[in-house]
Amino acid sequence: MIKVEDLHRHFGAFRAVDGASIEIAKGSITGLIGPNGAGKTTLFNVIAGRLPPTSGRVFMDGEDITGLPPHELFHKGLLRTFQIAHEFGSMTVRENLMMVPAAQSGETLWNAFFNRGRIASEERALRDKADEVLDFLTISHLADQKAANISGGQKKLLELGRTMMVDAKIVFLDEVGAGVNRTLLNTIGDAIVRLNKERGYTFCVIEHDMDFIGRLCDPVIVMAEGRVLAQGTVDQVKNDERVIEAYLGRGLKNKITA
After folding, report:
1. Interhelix angle for 250-257 vs 241-248, to 10°?
2. Which UniProt keywords apply (predicted)?
């Protein structure tokens, strides 16, 4: 579904992504791991249109999407979440979901005056859809709470719920487990697996929790210093000498081996 060819993103002399090439198969949950500063989030930002590449190409279903802005990629079904959730705190959880679909009739002044019935009908459908998403994510009890007042883990579930309000094809999840307690992380993991198996979502997941990655992801791609270091199953990459060295350093690696 996604093919990245020899991608570079430089910030002056610093090469945050330095010739990375990856493929994300349709219907997969692909893990992307690596030490801090490996270039994982920068790679996500380039693929998702938040940053232009210095060079290289990105393809989605064979179409060159290199450098397209996020709103165009949104309409193609490519979405991403962030390490820090981006909720609208003064709105309720349900309202955060209802505002996601584009081109709503109520967004134009003409319709606000002359097509109120159409707007009301759309809002009822959106409310029903939002309630279905909240039920799927087991957070219906939060529907009328202000988004600013829910926990960090619940905000991560809300971000995942936003992807369900549109026809998402592939979702990039950036450290979905950061700051989330184990119970909520399991709930998030269950939702990702169900969306993958029941609704055909493709995921690419950045995460440092290897238990979480091991439960969800196959294959796993490892980055270090802006480059792809290894790829395989969780067990394969965990036992790869290059991966051990990238995470632990040569001295600690040799000490553990000894």
Report:
1. 120
2. ATP-binding, Nucleotide-binding, Transport
Sheet with 2-11, side-by-side order of all strands: 14-24, 2-11, 55-60, 63-64
Burial of 253 (0-12, 13-18, 19+ CB in 10 A): middle
Tokens of 99: 């505002």
- What pLDDT sits at residue 257? 44
Q: How far apart are CA 82 and CA 41, in angstroms?
A: 9
Query: Torsion angle of alpha carbons 191, 192, 196, 200, nearest 10°?
Result: 80
Model confidence pLDDT, tens digit, residues 121-147: 778 889 999 999 999 999 999 999 999
- Residue 131 to residues 7, 87, 90, 144, 152: CA-CA distances in angstroms? 40, 17, 19, 11, 20
The ranges of the chain with pLDDT < 50 are 251-258
**Cβ atoms within 10 Å, residue 30:** 23
What is the pLDDT, as a whole number, of residue 245? Answer: 85
| Separation of alpha carbons 235 and 11, rounded Å | 34
Strand 29-33 to strand 202-206: parallel, antiparallel, or no bridges (unpaired)? parallel
Q: Which stretches of the chain are assigned E, i.e. beta strand? A: 2-11, 14-24, 29-33, 55-60, 63-64, 78-80, 170-174, 202-206, 220-224, 227-232
pTM exceeding 0.70: yes
What radius of gyration, in Å, describes the C-alpha atoms of the chain? 20
Quick one: pLDDT at residue 255? 42
Q: What is the pLDDT of residue 86?
A: 83
